[in-house]
Amino acid sequence: MRTNNNVMQIVLILVLLLINSSLALADDLKPPIILVTQEETKVSLTWSPVPNASGYQLFYAPFPFTGPESIKSVDMGSTTSGSIELWDGAAFIVAVKAHNDANSSDFSNIELFILSKAPLLDPDAPPVTGDWYKPPVAITWQWQLKGEVNTNHPAKLYDIDLFNSSPSLINTLKASGKKVICYFSAGSFEDSREDKDKFKAAELGNILVDKPDERWLDIRSHNVAEIMISRLNLALLKGCDGVEPDNMDAYANNSGFDINARDQLAFNKFIANEAHKRGLSVGLKNDMEQTPDLINYFDFSVNEQCHEFHECNMLTGFIANGKPVLNAEYQQSYLDNPVERQALCDSSNGAQFSTLILSKDLDDSRRFSCF
């Protein structure tokens, strides 16, 4: 089941409902902002009060979306919150509108939640099965996380930033026949991200080497897991075909937490399974040492500098299982020295890796593709 299409359908239906509404929009009646939190099978919703509003209407539909007739609404009166106990596996998309006697606001942000009583972090969790995008070996790709995204590269797959990429950009790439992977950091805190205030101080560890604006996260935390679910939901709502969760190897670094290998397996399997539940492809970034334990959970590998550091042999299992290795190299000599560059590309192509030579800033300032 392709869940991305379901989400886009419901967004379009909600927009059409708004356009066709007999209530005129008032400039001073702003849409509320809704926040969804969940704990096992209990879900709580709060939304911002809207000046001049006398009440609120909650709209909801089961997920996956089955058609416009599945959209229901509840008059919430003047309250700006509510909670309900649902069932294991319950999944809904929700939004809120404010209204008064004369007018109605636009819809709030649209949120998706999927409830589960199962342990979130289980190192022995089996892989989820289903239908989602699975990129082929030796696929052409482009990786750009900074600056205005150059949409003109002849690549079948684009890897771009989840937070900084608009649905319009993602739709443009997909309309040209490209698949879109959305990057976010699953294992580190970034002060620039819009959801930064959801993290607790106790969940923030040591600063990452060479990344002074990032700190390791305590990946054992239930709250961190919930934030990552919200990020996966955002990827789904934006129309991403898959995700690249970064910094998936806290156990092998000086994170500031007592995180062991099984903790890391539990977190990485959780990320992969939750992505797949949403119909999203997911790549394994870093954590090459645990590849044998994780290869059945991830659809591709994203790797930096395995040629430079002579580590590519640790990734050949992906190729053997029909899954691509998306490799980026940054060494300047690969660009300056044609002989060295050719040797790199010969080695990469022989292994069926998808290798790019890029700027380490991933800003499209330099790019050479070996394939």
From TrEMBL:
Keyword annotations of the record: Signal
Organism: Nitrosomonas communis
UniProt lineage: Bacteria, Pseudomonadati, Pseudomonadota, Betaproteobacteria, Nitrosomonadales
The protein's name in its UniProt record: Fibronectin type-III domain-containing protein
InterPro entries the record matches: Aldolase_TIM (IPR013785), FN3_dom (IPR003961), FN3_sf (IPR036116), GH (IPR017853), GH114_TIM-barrel (IPR004352), Ig-like_fold (IPR013783)
Keyword ATP-binding among UniProt keywords: no
Domain of life: Bacteria
PANTHER family: ALPHA-1,4 POLYGALACTOSAMINIDASE, PUTATIVE (AFU_ORTHOLOGUE AFUA_3G07890)-RELATED, ALPHA-GALACTOSIDASE
Signal peptide boundaries: 1-26
Domain (Fibronectin type-III) ranges: 28-119
